Amino acid sequence: MRSRNYSINLYFVTIISFLTMIAIMFFSTQATAQRSGLSIVRDAEIENTLREWGTPVFKAAGLNPKAVNIILVQNDSINAFVAGGSNIFFYTGLITKSENPGEVVGVLAHETGHIAGGHLIRGRAAMERASYESMIGLLLGIGAAIATGDAGAASALSLGGGSIAQRNYLAHSRIQESSADQAALSFLEKAKINPSGLASFMDKLKAEIYVPRNQQSEYMQTHPLVENRLEILTRGVAQSQYKEKPLPAKWTDEHARIKAKLIGFTSPGQIPWVYGDSDQSIPAQYARAIAAYRANQVDDALSRIDVLIAAEPKNPYFQELKGQMLVDFGRVEQALPYYREAIKYEDSPLFRIALGHALIESAGQNNQAMLKEAVDNLEIAVVKEPRSTRVHRLMATALGRMSDDTGAKLHLAEEALLQRRFDDAKNMAEYVLNREKEGSRYWIKAKDLVTYIENSKNG
Length: 459
What we know:
The chain is mainly alpha-helical and 459 residues long.
């Protein structure tokens, strides 16, 4: 997406250009991630949909659904993995190439099996207070290479070794794979969900056994032994008392919509081939509206999203998409009512961040009421989005314009910490400590940052 696109709906954080004020370690980490074709996607509709589908599975696994983070990775490959604790990373290609929600839920259940089994805990401490963008960089191994001064390792990774490092980090053992499969079947059974999707997804990958390794999907390379697993999963599905149970019709509709949304954003040129002219379904119209927006066809895009809003006026995702369009088309203040309407129907922190950004842009340097509204929304968002660098940068901008310099500096420190720029974070936190009264709200937060950074360096 265009570099000035700060909107949330499918907010692609292109990892090299997200910020200009970044230190060399983080810059190199991000650049390597971009060369590997990886970037983080934030979209409330897709994240909420996957969380809704996964909630019965998480509960069956004894996990708190609110503690499981689902992160979208912009990449056309088929892959999913767990890293840094209860964080499930989903490649967008897995969703666009799935045929039904059961396949996606099956993969969610399998990855939940890895979480419940305590697999892939390596590197968890390093990722504890890192942004999702930093986590992707850490998975590539470049962060460790630069931190240790191993320029040779960094060069090797930048030339393609990062992909190898990532696969080695994510690769599962035979025992872990079998354990996660069995756990997935158990969770789906307990959740009373048809497990057939997991087997059908695995069956799709079976053909890749016979192609060269460098042409296999990422999922094949990090989740091996597909043929043996398929046999076991097929037997497990046959024994399920829910193998004939249809999935909720709502899930099928949601699956069609999120696929249309992803294809519209990532492959807008394919829309005429994916959705024929006679297809006037909501997903097809959704995809065409997004494709027109991506092509910067202003009038067509706005006309198409208006049709969707008229059909479903209480759909928060349509409201938010129009807000995003207006922001990107340079009509920022016109976007405000659409973001506010979206929040009315879905109180998403991502919507509040988008509204906060639009308010700051509209307020300029002088409109204190708009800046206050921006801060109010961002303060709510930061509680639910603790790994978002963007919310802290926006808070710093708004507070700075409101002459709250220490508050702005504190949020810049939080941003730096999420980016693993420890020295910058510590310097800014100490700036706050030296200017705030001991025991004040800002002082306590700054002290917490300094203590965390010192413990991390000594750990």
